[in-house]
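re the bet — no i am not wrong, look at it urself. input seq straight from the record:
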Amino acid sequence: MGELPLYGGVIVDVRAEAVNRVFHYAIPQEIAQDIKIGHRVLVPFGHRKIEGYVVELTDQLDFDLSKVRDILELLDPEPIILPSLVELAHWMESQYVGLLSEALQYMLPPGFRYGKERVGVKTQQLVTLLEKNPKLRANATAQRRVVEVLQSQSPMLATELISKAKANYGCLQTLDRQGIVSLETVSLERSITWDKVDDPPLDLTYEQSKACDSILEEIEQKRRPILIHGVTGSGKTEIYLRIIEPIINQGKQVIVLVPEIALTSQIVNRFGARFGHRISVLHSGLSDGERFDQWWKIYHHEVDVVIGARS
């Protein structure tokens, strides 16, 4: 479709079989260039305004266009569901005879699912000292304390600075208006840590080396699933690590599933030692905020390896 789309097919975020179908809305000109499959949108629905997800785009409809209402707003700067996952949701709907709106829930990041409190990127104000020796009024004691703290460490998060300087946010805003400091909104990751362990690559036995070569060849040919069989302690994890390294060196990503949460930490420690912070962790023991941040990194290709339990 070369021209900008005129209409969007939307699945509304309502759990009811009566509305388990695509509703079509006109796309206002101001968002026509930005809207994509997977975008979260605000639409009129009866006498309400509700959220929905764009699942198709078209430039023509075969019914009365006078009844078509406009999409009200794009709710996110980029699609929150990848087009491939929208296709997967369609397949799940037909395969399991369920609701498409429900299938789409499984494609959403934590904190965006039906009935949950919304979670997004966590932000904070970062304060940077611009003028090292500013002229301040004699009675501006709080401002002076802020500058003195920043003279020893700049930039600094606003919450930390307010605590150290015994000041308030209004004081920072005043210094910002005067050009003495700058206030900048930055995103903060609810980071997940793991133990730093020394885990150098092990020397492979002849059988392990042969297995790695054979598996990589199978992966290259995309032939079939592969089972690695070995007793506990036989070196299977080292084989996984050796297989993954050339794959991520090709710019691809890898998913590693462990059978239970209890095993996640020791796997994460080994993978973290080998691949550094280019790994992500997902399991039900994380908060919605932590899981959202991990999803955000995966979505934006900031990680190479995703490790998760089946829960």
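see?? The chain has three domains: 7-105, 122-188, 206-309. told u. also Residues 206-221 form the longest helix (16 residues). so pay up
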